[in-house]
C-alpha cells in the first residue's frame, strides 16, 4: 500500500535532514535542500509513493539537489564553521582528545569537490557499497572508487585546521 | 579500515549530531505546499488574461493619467497597499505564540504574542516577538556582533528586550521582549526566518487611495484596522464598537445614523464599525468616515494563528 505523503514526511524528515547535514556540512543548506526536495516530491507523490523504496528515491533526490545546488552556488561563500553549526544545535559535550582531530577532518571534508564528498558520505556514513554509490551518483563503479581514493588521499594530507568562526570558501571544482 | 577512514567515519558521525530540528522544515512545508494545478484551466485563464491585456492596452494606449499625490507614497509601500507581500516568515516560535499585529508601511512589522493575551499585548510591555523587514541600520555602540544563517548580524539587549538585526535581501530585525533568555530566543527565531513570497497581507479598508496600514486583533472575527489621515485624524474600521468619550449626538454619516462626539464620529456600517477621532473638534472626522472604502472580504485569517 502506498504510504501517504504526510506519513512519509513524518517518518523520514529527520533522517533526510541528518543525511543532508552530513552531505552539505551546513545545517541551513540542509534545511533548504530537504525542503525543496520534499516540495517537489509532494507534487509527484503518486509516482514516488508507488516505488519499492520511496525513502531511497527521495534520498537520491536530496543528493541530486545538493549536487545541482552546489553547481548553482559554486562561486558563493558558504559559511561553514563550528559557530554556524552550533548556532542550530549546540554540540554535544566532547572531552576526548579526538575532538580537534574530528573537527579538522570535518573542515577537510568540507573542502572536497562535491562528488568526492558525496561519495565519502555514502561510503563512510551510509555504509553503501560501490555499486549503490554508483547508482546514487549516476556514474560507473570505477568512478566511485576513483572519487573515494582521491578524497582519502586529500584527507590524509597534513592540514592545519582553520580557526573556528572563519567561513571557508567552498568554490570547489565542478567535476 | 585504516585510521583515516575511521576518523572520517567519526567526523561524519559527529556532524550528524548537528542535524537541525525538523520543526522549521515541517512548518515551511506546510506553508509552501503546492496544490496540484489544473493545466487546462491555467491555460484558459492565461489566454483570457492575455486577451484582456491586449484589449485594455489598445483602449488605454492613447490615454494619459497624470500621477496623483498618493502615487509617491503608495510606491513606498511594498505591493502598493492592498495586497502586500510580507516576504518573510519565521518557521519557529515559542509554543503558544500567535500573530496579532501587522504594520505595513515602509517597514513591515509582524508581531506574535502569547495566545489569549488580552487588550493590546503588542503595546503593553508584555511578552512579544516581532519580525520587522525594512528600516534603517541600527546605530549606537552597544551592539554585539553575531551571525544569522552565516550572515553577519548585530544583537543588543536592553531592558529584557533583545534586538537582532541582519541583512538578508532586506534589512531584517527580530525583537524579543519578556523572555528571561530573550537573546537566545531572538537568535532561534532569526535562524528560522525564510523568504516566503506567498505570505501576503490584504488591508481592510482604503481611504483617499491608501490602504489601512495597521491591523490587529485577537481572532479572525475580532479585529481592527487603522490609518492616520492628513496627519491629524485617526481612522478605524473594526468589528467591535468603539468607546466614545464625552457627550454624543446623532449625526448622519455614510447615509446612516451615527454618533458624533466633540472629537470623533462613529457609525455601524453593515457588519463593521467605522470611526474617526482627532485631537481637536474638526469636521474632518466626518469627512474621513464618509470617504472610507471598505474591502469586501478583508483577510483576517492570520489573527490569532501560530505557525
TrEMBL record, chain A:
Transmembrane segments: none
Domain RNA polymerase sigma factor 70 region 4 type: residue ranges: 103-155
Pfam families in alphabetical order: Sigma70_r2 (PF04542), Sigma70_r4_2 (PF08281)
InterPro entries: RNA_pol_sigma-70-like, RNA_pol_sigma-70_dom, RNA_pol_sigma-E_actinobac, RNA_pol_sigma70_r2, RNA_pol_sigma70_r4_t2, RNA_pol_sigma_r2, RNA_pol_sigma_r3/r4-like, WH-like_DNA-bd_sf
Species of provenance: Lentzea flava
Gene3D superfamilies for the chain: 1.10.1740.10, Winged helix-like DNA-binding domain superfamily/Winged helix DNA-binding domain
UniProt domain RNA polymerase sigma-70 region: residue ranges: 15-74
Descriptive protein name: RNA polymerase sigma24 factor
Keywords, comma-separated and alphabetical: DNA-binding, Sigma factor, Transcription, Transcription regulation
NCBIfam families: SigE-fam_strep (TIGR02983), sigma70-ECF (TIGR02937)
PANTHER family: ECF RNA POLYMERASE SIGMA FACTOR SIGM (PTHR43133:SF50), RNA POLYMERASE ECF-TYPE SIGMA FACTO (PTHR43133)
Membership in a protein family: Belongs to the sigma-70 factor family. ECF subfamily.
UniProtKB/TrEMBL annotation, chain B:
Protein name: DUF4367 domain-containing protein
Region (Disordered): 9-28
Residues passing through the membrane, by range: 39-60
Key words, A-Z: Membrane, Transmembrane, Transmembrane helix
The keyword Transmembrane is assigned to this record: yes
Biased composition (Basic and acidic residues): 9-20
Amino acid at each position: 500500500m502506498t504510504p501517504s505523503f504526510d506519513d512519509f514526511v513524518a517518518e523520514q524528515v529527520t533522517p533526510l535532514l541528518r543525511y543532508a547535514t552530513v552531505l552539505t556540512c551546513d545545517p541551513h543548506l540542509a534545511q533548504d535542500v530537504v525542503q525543496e526536495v520534499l516540495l517537489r516530491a509532494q507534487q509527484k507523490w503518486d509516482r514516488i509513493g508507488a516505488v519499492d523504496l520511496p525513502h531511497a528515491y527521495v534520498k537520491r533526490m536530496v543528493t541530486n539537489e545538493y549536487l545541482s545546488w552546489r553547481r548553482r552556488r559554486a562561486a558563493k561563500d558558504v559559511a561553514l564553521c563550528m559557530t554556524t553549526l552550533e548556532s542550530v544545535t549546540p554540540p554535544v559535550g566532547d572531552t576526548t582528545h579526538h575532538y580537534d582531530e574530528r573537527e579538522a577532518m570535518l573542515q577537510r571534508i568540507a573542502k572536497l569537490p562535491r562528488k568526492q564528498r558525496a561519495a565519502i558520505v555514502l561510503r563512510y556514513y551510509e555504509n553503501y557499497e560501490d555499486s549503490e554509490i554508483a547508482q546514487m551518483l549516476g556514474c560507473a563503479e570505477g568512478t566511485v572508487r576513483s572519487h573515494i581514493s582521491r578524497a582519502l588521499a586529500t584527507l590524509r594530507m597534513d592540514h592545519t585546521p582553520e580557526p573556528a568562526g572563519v567561513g571557508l570558501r567552498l568554490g570547489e571544482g565542478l567535476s | 579500515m585504516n585510521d583515516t577512514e575511521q576518523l572520517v567515519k567519526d567526523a561524519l558521525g559527529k556532524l550528524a549530531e548537528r542535524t537541525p530540528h525538523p520543526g522549521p522544515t515541517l512548518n515551511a512545508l506546510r506553508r509552501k505546499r503546492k496544490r496540484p494545478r489544473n493545466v487546462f484551466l491555467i491555460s484558459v485563464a492565461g489566454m483570457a488574461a492575455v486577451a484582456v491585456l491586449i484589449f485594455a492596452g489598445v483602449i488605454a494606449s492613447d490615454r494619459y493619467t497624470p500621477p496623483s499625490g498618493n502615487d509617491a507614497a503608495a510606491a513606498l509601500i511594498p505591493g502598493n497597499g492592498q495586497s502586500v507581500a510580507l516576504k518573510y516568515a519565521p518557521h519557529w516560535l515559542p509554543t503558544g505564540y500567535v500573530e496579532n499585529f501587522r504594520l505595513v508601511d515602509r517597514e513591515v512589522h509582524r508581531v506574535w504574542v502569547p495566545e489569549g493575551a488580552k487588550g493590546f499585548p503588542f503595546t503593553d510591555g508584555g511578552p512579544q516577538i516581532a519580525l520587522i523587514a525594512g528600516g534603517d541600520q541600527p546605530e549606537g555602540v552597544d551592539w554585539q556582533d553575531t551571525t544569522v544563517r552565516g550572515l553577519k548580524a548585530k544583537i543588543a539587549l536592553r531592558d529584557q528586550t533583545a534586538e537582532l538585526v541582519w541583512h538578508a535581501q532586506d534589512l531584517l530585525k527580530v525583537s524579543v521582549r519578556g523572555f528571561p533568555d530573550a537573546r537566545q530566543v531572538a537568535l532561534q527565531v532569526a535562524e528560522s526566518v525564510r523568504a516566503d513570497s506567498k505570505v501576503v497581507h490584504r488591508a481592510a479598508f482604503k481611504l483617499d487611495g491608501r490602504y489601512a496600514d495597521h491591523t490587529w486583533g485577537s481572532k479572525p472575527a475580532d479585529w481592527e484596522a487603522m490609518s492616520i489621515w492628513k496627519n491629524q485624524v485617526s481612522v478605524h474600521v473594526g468589528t467591535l464598537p468603539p468607546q466614545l468619550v464625552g457627550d454624543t449626538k446623532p449625526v448622519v454619516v455614510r447615509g446612516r445614523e451615527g454618533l458624533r462626539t466633540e472629537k470623533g464620529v462613529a457609525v455601524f456600517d453593515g457588519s463593521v464599525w467605522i470611526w474617526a477621532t482627532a485631537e481637536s473638534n474638526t469636521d474632518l472626522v466626518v469627512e474621513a468616515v464618509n470617504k472610507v472604502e471598505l474591502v469586501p472580504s478583508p483577510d483576517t485569517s492570520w489573527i490569532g494563528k501560530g505557525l
